[in-house]
Specification:
alpha+beta, Glutaredoxin, five-stranded mixed sheet
Length: 272
Amino acid sequence: MTQNTAAALAAVLGMAGLWALQPASAATATAAASAPVATTPAAAGTAAGEDAKDPRTLLLKRLPPGSKLEELHASPIPGIYEFQQGAEISYLTADGRYFIDGNVYDMDTRQNLSEARRAQARAALIAAVPESQMIVFSPDNPRYTITVFTDVDCAYCRKLHSEIAQINKLGVRVRYMFYPRSGPGTESWRKAEAVWCSVNRNEALTRAKGGAALDLSKPCPVNPVNREYTLGQEIGVRGTPAIVTESGDYISGYLPPQDLVNQIKDLQIARR
């Protein structure tokens, strides 16, 4: 449930007989909250103590299996918790009855608080990846750095890369990570692996994006493609090229070099 938390939750809610976030009477909610969760008095006392210390423990029971306590945070709105998985942000009322999918805005500042949290999450997820696991095209003195999730066979990814020299000339450092849209085991996936296992990865990526044939017969067991694909899903990549700025802002799709730089500048100004 990394790419679309609300959709996955809706699918779970539609399954019969589950715990899910169904409207309940106050009596039902009270009974559920007070129901024992352990089979022994000692264990029951411990669980009750944990629930009393941290109200998120009870909320966690209302969320899909696999959800974690640390994914629930207090939101800026009293009585509302933020639920974060990867860079997906949604909300849950403190009584566990209502799940909210959407953006929260601060009406005083006009800031999209949800998108700000998504950006923070994207930046943190990408920062955890060493650059040695990326393919980097950089000018000598870069003014901006972007991370691009790319597919070797994506037409607009190829268009973007055909202008990489101009992008670099405008002061933009490009760090590539693989996101083969067709998924594991496909030809695009194998091409990404072949690029990574090439002697000169930058040259191989340029050749591949130019349509040159790659030798897909050689095994490439050690590569970051699967990890980067999974990371793209956590970040919320919806298509390629998916561009993420240093601050975690998401730019969807291809932009001509100067338009790309202008967009990066505008996003920086908006953050001031």
